[in-house]
Amino acid sequence: ESADLEAAATTGVTARMLNNGQSCIAAKRFIVVDAVAEDFQQRLLDKFQALKVGDPMAEDTDIGPLATPGILRDLDQQVQACIEQGAKVLIGGHPLSDRAGNFYPPTILTDFPPGTPADNEEFFGPVALLFRVPDIDAAIKLANSTVFGLGASAWTTNEEQIPRLIDELEAGAVFINGLVKSDPRLPFGGIKRSGYGRELSIQGIHEFVNIKTVWVK
Question: Which domains does the chain have, with CATH numbers?
Answer without folding.
Answer: 5-183 (3.40.309.10)
